[in-house]
Amino acid sequence: LSSQSDLCLSRSAYLEKYLGPCRSPFFLPTCITYLLIFVVGVLGNSLTCIVIARHRVMRTTTNYYLFSLAISDLLVLLLGLPLELYELWSNYPFLFGVAGCYFKTCLFETVCFASVLNVTALSAERYRAVVRPLHAKHMVTHAHAKRVILVLWAVSLLCALPNTSLHGVEMLKPRFGLTFPNSGVCIVVHDRWIYNLLVQVTALLFFILPMLAITVLYVLIGLQLHRERECFDSKIGLNQDGVNQRARHRQVTKMLCALVIVFGICWAPFHIDRVMWSYIDDWTAENHHVFEYVHLLSGVFFYLSSVVNPILYNLMSSRFREMFREVVCQKDHRQLSISKVTLRSVVSLDFSDIGNK
User: Fold this and answer.
1) Shortest CA distance to 219 belongs to which of 123, 143, 148, 112?
2) Kind and range of the H or E element at 177?
3) Which of 74, 92, 174, 228 has its CA 20 to 30 A from that of 38?
4) What is the mean pLDDT of residues 30-56?
5) CB under 8 Å to 69, separation ≥6 — which residues?
6) Cα distance between residue 154 and residue 167, in whole Å
7) Percentage of the chain lying above the pLDDT 70 cut
8) Distant-in-sequence, close-in-space partners of 291: CB < 8 Å, separation ≥ 6
9) What is the chain's mean pLDDT, rounded?
10) How far apart are the two ends of the chain, measured CA to CA in Å?
11) Helices in the chain by DSSP H: which ranges?
12) If we measure between CA atoms, which residue out of 217, 234, 233, 237 comes closest to residue 130?
């Protein structure tokens, strides 16, 4: 009976029956949201990269990790988001072939892993700078930060390859003597159980465990700063340099802690979406309906994570705010007076650290 009814369907109706609607019903509101994210994200992350690259005073080990995060966000926004918008406009056929499918999968996997490893490495660097300053003086250097960043990107790319290899372009099988060349979609083409296992392992290794480690690190940092404040409050005639250094540590830690919290909130739906898809075997209408909304929400938060970092820098760092303004207004950065830079480094968050080598 099903075969007879399928025989009466047009090609487009047949594709919609087995692949779903060609265009997402949420295309318009999602498109507007994504375009806003694209403009703000590209502008903010480009400014972050320019500011750190242009100004020597901004080239600290902490900012190298922020630069790496900005590059990761730009890759997602410039390469990943347009592909996502196109798929919302036309779910099928996938026009970029097997190579395009591999590229898309590898890009998202690599950026996902690199982002969490960047945040983890940044948190570990903060821990050393605050809790183990003598050790940080010799270990937290520019050269060390660059090596760590190169390694974490290499590890991210390597870990992205297994999932990439499971994907490919699949089309509906010929039926009734007809072929369906417009049915190609970029999906998992190998054993589903391998993909399910891979998703669950990567969620554990690249989200749950790193977020737990980061939480522990910031708890230890907070306890150390609290002990230092109590210690210095009990002393009379505290050296002003010591006061300024502790204030800088507190300000930097507050901003990075906010960054980590926002990062966790934005990336949690992404992993929930993947794990949920891997666990569902019986795709009832209700399950499909719930997953559709989870998938939509995870996509918005995924791209939103590429926007919020520059906004945080602007809100919580007067130095970043001043540098952003300078780049936008095209002022000569050499006109910045040393006195202004020095003043800001005392009273605000300057992202300097012990190992500026």
Assistant:
1) 123
2) none
3) 92
4) 93
5) 115, 118, 119, 122, 309
6) 21
7) 84
8) 273, 276, 277, 280
9) 82
10) 75
11) 2-7, 11-19, 27-54, 61-75, 81-89, 97-131, 133-139, 142-166, 192-203, 209-233, 240-279, 285-316, 318-328, 338-347
12) 217
Q: Which residue in 356, 327, 309 sits closest to 37, CA to CA?
A: 309
Q: Hey, where are the domains in the chain?
A: 25-173+180-347
Residues 194, 33: Cα–Cα separation, whole Å: 34
Q: How far is Cα 299 from Cα 346, in angstroms, rounded to an integer? A: 40
How far is 223 from 185, CA to CA, in rounded Å? 51
**What sign does the CA torsion over 40, 42, 43, 49 have?**
positive
Q: Which pLDDT score is estimated for 278? A: 84
pLDDT in tens, 212-236: 999 999 888 888 887 877 776 565 4
Which has the higher per-residue pLDDT, 335 or 288? 288
Element (H, E) at 180: none
pLDDT of residue 242: 55
Residue 93: cis peptide before it, omega within 30 degrees of 0: yes
- What tokens does 97 get? 């072939």
> Which range, 11-25, 207-221, 269-283, has the best average confidence (pLDDT)?
207-221
Beta bridge partners of 170: 185
Lowest mean per-residue pLDDT among 217-221, 267-271, 314-318: 314-318
Measured CA to CA in angstroms, residue 266 lies from 207, 260, 263, 300 at distances of 12, 10, 5, 9
* Amino acid occupying residue 195: Y
Distance in angstroms (rounded) separating the CA atoms of residues 125 and 123: 5
DSSP string, 277-321: HHH--S--HHHHHHHHHHHHHHHHHHHHHHHHHHHHHHHH-HHHH
Tell me which of 218 and 241 has the higher pLDDT. Answer: 218
For the residues 118-139, what does the mean pLDDT come to? 82
Band (pLDDT 50/70/90 cuts) for residue 344 is very low
CATH 1.20.1070.10 fits 25-173+180-347, yes or no: yes
